[in-house]
């Protein structure tokens, strides 16, 4: 790649290190740089472009942390040879750190230590699942071979409506349930049915990075609204953009900070939506896992006026390879959403949907959740104990009542992007909190998945490796 292709705009737009990071990503995704290609050293690129070494280093660390580059010490830095599949598959081009981490893991066939967003892959009841899937195939009726309902397979929609009634306090009919291709499929449907490009929405800051990327791509404008120990600061949202069209929230377990939205804030948010005809998109991505007290009911359970669009996913409770999530829309909006799905690819094949429906109806789903709740409580302790004992002087674990990740704040003034980059070059998939922020904040943090630490020893070994990185920097 020619260095002129980097085309940096000094003194305008994003900081230079971000521009540099972005240009490299584009070059890799566009095929200008191929897996295995060598890139200039930090020092030579800095001198070639008249930049500070720290600026180039920051961009390189981010590229390493996201799996684009591999730093091989004295042997130089190369574009990761594991990205071969990236250039082959056009669908892989909509890239982001979370997706990159999972691509990296998939290419080596296992979860990376600390990898976010993955359930315990070793504990999934594969035999039962295979039996159900086999039955789905064997008992296929001719009607199931025709074009499926784009709103989703009806028995699954019914099973979801029943499950939400029992476990999340949500009263809905199966007609209000739309099965989607992952959470972003649900967001896409909301954008098509209810929003216009240019609409303004409140977005939790920090908040779920992939959804932010998706929504920005869809052309809506996100207004960062800070969170505190009670969750989204509704008063800030009102102050900044009272007439916003929508708000995206994670009320049960704020992503990534982990607190719940307090009841007074829930009521304030619903009041805003009613007064301003706004839509609340409730992302209830991992509410099933709670280790202290009872699971909190969904915000949707308080929605008397039909302003909440509720989303849930099978990624954490089953596995993300399914790519199946769901959206519950207010009864008054069912017609609009039905029209929208008619012109939309929908959730895809009925086979995984039918298998999930059987899995739920036959009680395997609730048994699995029950088992995973106690397993995750144990695995979370493995990680928290190891962090406290080994890295307690540098990392402060934030108490979280649920979920499958922990957040540890850096007690030093170390830069979380650099730490995560250096950790990635040792094969550790911690994510820097700064990546999830829309507005910069002084204190950095590391996000870590714990679901795949099967023993205290595994957790301790990974934390020791991370600790070495913390001490080196
Ligand atoms: C905050 C949040 N929302 C939603 C999801 C679910 O996304 P998907 O259904 O696309 O796997 C995730 C998955 O990691 C998440 O972290």
TrEMBL record:
SMART domains: HTH_GNTR (SM00345). InterPro entries: Aminotransferase_I/II_large, HTH_trans_reg/aminotransferase, PyrdxlP-dep_Trfase, PyrdxlP-dep_Trfase_major, Tscrpt_reg_HTH_GntR, WH-like_DNA-bd_sf, WH_DNA-bd_sf. Residues 14-82 form the HTH gntR-type domain. Pfam families: Aminotran_1_2, GntR. CDD domains: AAT_like (cd00609), WHTH_GntR (cd07377). It comes from the Bacteria. SUPFAM superfamilies: PLP-dependent transferases (SSF53383), Winged helix' DNA-binding domain (SSF46785). Keywords: DNA-binding, Pyridoxal phosphate, Transcription, Transcription regulation. The keyword Metal-binding does not apply. In the C-terminal section; belongs to the class-I pyridoxal-phosphate-dependent aminotransferase family. This is HTH-type transcriptional regulatory protein GabR. It comes from Cupriavidus pampae. The lineage of its organism: Bacteria, Pseudomonadati, Pseudomonadota, Betaproteobacteria, Burkholderiales.
């Amino acid at each position: 790649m020619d260095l002129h292709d980097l085309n940096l705009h000094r003194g305008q737009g994003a900081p230079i290190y971000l521009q540099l990071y972005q240009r490299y990503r584009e070059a890799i995704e566009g095929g200008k740089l191929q897996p295995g290609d060598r890139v200039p050293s930090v020092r030579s690129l800095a001198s070639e472009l008249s930049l500070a070494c720290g600026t180039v280093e920051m961009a390189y660390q981010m590229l390493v942390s996201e799996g684009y580059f591999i730093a091989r010490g004295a042997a130089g830095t190369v574009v990761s040879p594991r990205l071969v599949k990236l250039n082959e598959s056009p669908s892989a081009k909509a890239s982001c750190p979370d997706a990159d981490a999972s691509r990296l893991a998939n290419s080596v066939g296992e979860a990376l230590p600390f990898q976010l967003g993955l359930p315990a892959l070793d504990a999934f009841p594969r035999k039962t699942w295979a039996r159900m899937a086999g039955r789905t195939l064997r008992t296929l009726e001719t009607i199931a071979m025709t074009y499926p309902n784009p709103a989703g397979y009806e028995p699954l929609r019914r099973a979801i409506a029943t499950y939400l009634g029992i476990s999340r306090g949500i009263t809905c009919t199966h007609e209000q349930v739309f099965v989607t291709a992952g959470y972003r499929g649900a967001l896409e449907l909301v954008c098509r049915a209810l929003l216009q490009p240019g609409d303004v929405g409140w977005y939790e800051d920090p908040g779920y990075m992939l959804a932010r990327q998706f929504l920005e791509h869809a052309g809506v404008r996100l207004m960062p609204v800070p969170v505190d120990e009670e969750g989204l600061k509704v008063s800030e949202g009102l102050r900044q953009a009272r007439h916003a069209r929508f708000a995206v929230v994670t009320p049960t377990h704020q992503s990534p900070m982990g607190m719940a939205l307090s009841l007074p804030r829930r009521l304030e948010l619903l009041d805003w939506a009613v007064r301003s005809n706004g839509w609340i998109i409730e992302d209830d991505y991992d509410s099933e896992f709670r280790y202290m007290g009872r699971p909190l009911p969904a915000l949707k359970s308080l929605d008397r006026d039909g302003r909440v669009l509720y989303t849930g996913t099978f990624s954490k409770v089953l596995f993300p390879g399914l790519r199946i999530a769901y959206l519950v829309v207010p009864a008054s909006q069912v017609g609009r959403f039905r029209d929208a799905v008619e012109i939309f690819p929908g959730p895809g094949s009925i086979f995984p949907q039918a298998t999930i429906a059987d899995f739920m109806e036959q009680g395997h789903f609730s048994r699995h959740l029950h088992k995973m709740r106690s397993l995750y409580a144990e695995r979370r302790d493995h990680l928290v104990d190891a962090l406290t004992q080994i890295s307690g002087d540098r990392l402060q674990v934030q108490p979280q009542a649920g979920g499958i990740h922990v957040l540890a704040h850096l007690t030093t003034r170390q830069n979380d992007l650099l730490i995560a980059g250096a950790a990635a070059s040792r094969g550790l998939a911690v994510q820097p909190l700064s990546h999830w922020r829309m507005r910069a904040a002084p204190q950095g943090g590391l996000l870590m998945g714990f679901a795949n630490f099967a023993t205290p020893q595994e957790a301790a070994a990974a934390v020791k490796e991370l600790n070495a990185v913390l001490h080196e920097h």
